[in-house]
Amino acid sequence: MSESTVVPPEVTDDVRRILADAGISDNADLVARILTTGIGLGMDGADRLDLKIASSALTEMRAAFRLFAPYDDAPKATIFGSARTRPEDALYRQASEVAAALAVRGWLVVTGAGPGIMQAAAEGAGPHHSLGVSIRLPFEEKPNAVLGESARNVAMKYFFTRKLMLVKESRGFVCVPGGFGTLDEMFELLTLQQTGKADPVPIVLLDAPGGGFWAGLRRFVDEHLLTSGVISPGDFDRVLITDSVTEAVDELTGFYRNYDSLRWVGKRLVLRLKAEPTDAELAALNRQFRALLTDGGIERRGALTVEREDDDRVDLPRLVLRLNQFRVGELYRLIRAVNALESAPAG
Questions:
Q1: CB burial readout 89-113, b (16+ within 10 A) else e
Q2: Cβ atoms of 14 and 36 closer than 8 Å
Q3: pTM
Q4: Average pLDDT for the chain
Q5: Which of 178, 197, 284, 299 has the lowest CB atom count within 10 Å?
Q6: How many CA atoms lie within 13 Å of 269's alpha carbon, on the beta-carbon side?
């Protein structure tokens, strides 16, 4: 069938009545869209496998949303790495120590809840600072002992829904050497950042002390991807490669030294900060980042009208700019500059 079958208006009206009967008022338009999309799939004659995929994905996302909802205000970091790493491996200790240090600073650590690096991170953070999104595989162990019997874990059938939740909820990422799965997760992160499909976040590639795993990737990027023109200069500069636990933790937490969050309001990008830049600092930012703008300059503002209406971080100072959408992947550079201002809070 080349075109989707339109859901009749009377059916849409029935859906709205069902929502009202169920007492759903918040975001009722979006809930109605979900239901009418399901009806539309049935009207389209979607086959059983397609319907099972859609149904399972939505069910899994609901379970994951419920898991994360109580911890919405807590900063989270996802740690990726191999399920095959053994406890005696230096990488296991690195992951555990990073997770422990983040937990001390009030962060929650999110993992795939499996063995290896995932277990190391959960052990380091401890059960009260860990959240897990496990995958059901016929050949892999059950969720690790830290999270396996915990209400702080949700099991997924599909890798794509699992990866969505491992990425969506976190404000920082640590990738420890691993195989295809770890590299897939890392490149997904880089793709989302490069294309502006996700807010800028700190990404750390953590190696064993003296290890060269990620340095090999850096050489491949420089010698092949960059020289062939398939990425832009600086695309890989957004990540920190290190074998230091302290540097890894400082990179994640330091990214939010002054930068708090962002929001698009029409064509204007709003950066919410912890401290207001001085006149001289604002002038310097405008000189340094003029090429990222479509017109105008970077302006110091209070909360915009729509932000006040939504009560969205209204107490914070702001920088407002019109960002060239083709340069959105470079936004992390502006954030790092904002964090380095003398007016920024002490790290």
A1: bebbbbbbbbbbbbbeeebbbbbbb
A2: no
A3: 0.92
A4: 94
A5: 197
A6: 23
Nearest to 83 by CA among 106, 125, 114: 114
**58 class by beta-carbon count within 10 Å (0-12 exposed, 13-18 middle, 19+ buried):** middle
Cα-Cα-Cα-Cα dihedral of 26, 109, 188, 35, to 10°?
-20
Q: Which of 198, 204, 169 is nearest to 262 (CA)?
A: 198
Token code pair at residue 19: 């929502």
Residue 34: count of CB within 10 angstroms of its CB: 10
Residue 1's pLDDT band, with cuts at 50, 70 and 90, is very low
What is the tens place of the pLDDT at every residue in 321-340? 999 988 988 999 999 999 99
Give the C-alpha distances (Å, rounded to integers) separating 134 from 2, 65, 238: 37, 14, 28
Q: Are strands 268-273 and 318-321 parallel, antiparallel or unpaired?
A: antiparallel
pLDDT in tens, 77-130: 999 999 999 999 999 999 999 999 999 999 999 999 999 999 999 999 999 999
DSSP class of 107: -
* Identity of the amino acid at 35: L
